[in-house]
Design brief:
The protein has one domain. A two-stranded antiparallel sheet has the order 1-2. A two-stranded antiparallel sheet has the order 3-4. The chain is built from ten helices and four strands. The protein is globular and about 55 Å long. The chain is mainly alpha-helical. Helix 2 packs antiparallel against helix 10 and helix 4 crosses helix 10. A hairpin with a 2-residue loop joins strand 3 and strand 4. This is GPP34 family phosphoprotein.
């Protein structure tokens, strides 16, 4: 059986919902992946007037960046361009909207979805809405197989917090098999630090993937929590602030599913 494709969190989001995935969510997941990889650092912003909380700032760490896929490279450009304004998260979102439309749908249309098409996981199809021809996207047979694989793993991943205590190897195997899609599983964020620990221990010990049979088939995927060293573990504590801050910065952009925005791949 051929190995499962390596998908980023944003690509997994779009594969699961080809026409409805929100551009703002895809950008947020891409930035979150870069934070966990250590390419971006979360810096708390100074309090606002009357002590109000502001969205945190994002600062490029200056660590050598490997060749990034197009969506991640675009997100890094927004972070670098916002440095003149202390890496303001609002400025990052503003720059992204400038390139990909007010609702950020172009981030999916121009950057994420074309990668899935080129890799044979999605294909365009023509349909009609109120007699008007429109382009939609659907999974290919390979894409549908990967979508079902991810859906099944995500359902099982809800039990990762339990497996962290009962069977750490099983927790590590599930996390490794999910790769970037681990960011799509509700409720796991508070456990990322422990997941990183069991992944590292499992790989250092040369484990075989645990009792679940998922193995290390997804080693080296987009979000490799085992690759987060101790100096970067404070990123886990900052993710809640980033999550809320991004939603606040993107609020009012009219983001919805479907196509929009401009730009090229």
């Amino acid at each position: 059986m051929p190995p499962a494709p390596t998908l980023s969190a944003a690509e997994a989001l779009v594969l699961l919902d080809p026409d409805g995935a929100r551009g703002s969510e895809a950008l947020k997941l891409t930035l979150m992946s870069l934070i966990l990889q250590g390419s971006i650092r979360i810096v708390p912003a100074p309090p606002g007037w009357f002590g109000g909380r502001r969205p945190p700032n994002l600062v490029a760490t200056g660590r050598p960046e490997p060749s990034l896929p197009v969506p991640a490279a675009a997100a890094m450009r927004f972070v670098h361009a916002a440095q003149g304004r202390q890496g303001s998260l609002r400025e990052v979102v503003r720059l992204a909207r400038r390139d990909h439309g007010a609702n950020l749908a172009g981030f999916v249309k121009d950057l994420v979805r074309p990668r899935l098409v080129r890799r044979g996981l999605l294909e365009a199809c023509r349909t009609r809405v109120l007699f008007v021809p429109v382009e939609r996207f659907r999974t290919t047979p390979a894409g549908e197989a990967e979508r079902q694989r991810l859906t099944g793993l995500m359902a099982r991943a809800a039990d990762i917090p339990v497996w962290l205590d009962r069977d750490p190897a099983q927790a590590a195997a599930l996390a490794a098999a999910l790769g970037g899609a681990i960011l799509l599983v509700p409720g796991l964020q508070p456990h990322f630090e422990r997941i990183a620990g069991v992944l590292r221990a499992h790989r250092d010990a040369g484990g075989d993937g645990g009792s679940g049979g998922t193995g290390d088939e997804a080693a080296g995927r987009d979000v490799d929590l085992a690759g987060v060293d101790a100096d970067l573990w404070d990123a886990f504590d900052g993710l809640d602030a980033f999550d809320a801050g991004f939603d606040s910065a993107a609020d009012g952009g009219g983001d919805g599913g479907g196509d929009g925005g401009g730009g090229g791949d």
